[in-house]
C-alpha cells in the first residue's frame, strides 16, 4: 500500500500467504482438470497469484531500506 504522507509501500505478510494459498489451489485444480485448456487456464492463474505474492514480498524488502531524502526533492509538484 502506498500512502502519500509516509511515502512508503507496506507489504502485508497475510496477503502473501493468501496469494500463495490461491496459487496452490489453482495448481491442485490444474492437476485434476480433464482437458488441456482447463489445465492451462489453472496453471496461468496460478502463475498470476505467484506473481502477486512475489510483488508483495518485493514491496516488503523495499520498505526495509532507508530513504535518502531524494524522494521529496524529485517528487512531482502540483501545477500552479
Structure, explained:
There is one protein chain. This protein has 80 residues and is mainly alpha-helical. The protein has one domain. It contains three helices and no strands. Helix 1 runs antiparallel to helix 2 (36-64). Residues 1-8 have low confidence and may be disordered.
Write the layout of secondary structure elements.
Blueprint lengths: L12 H20 L3 H29 L5 H4 L7
Helix pairs in contact: 1-2
Tally of DSSP helical segments: 3
Oligomer: single chain
* Unreliably modeled segments: 1-8
Sheet of most strands: none
Mean pLDDT score, rounded? 77
Compute the number of structural domains: 1
Helix-strand category: mainly alpha
Q: Residue share in helices?
A: 55-70%
Distance between the termini: 28 Å
User: Approximately what portion of the residues adopt beta-strand conformation?
Assistant: under 5%
Radius of gyration over C-alpha positions, nearest whole angstrom: 18 Å
**What is the 3D form?**
elongated
List the helices and strands in order.
HHH
Q: How many β-strand runs?
A: 0
Task: Provide keyphrases for this structure.
mainly alpha; 3 helices; disordered N terminus; elongated; 0% strand; 80 residues
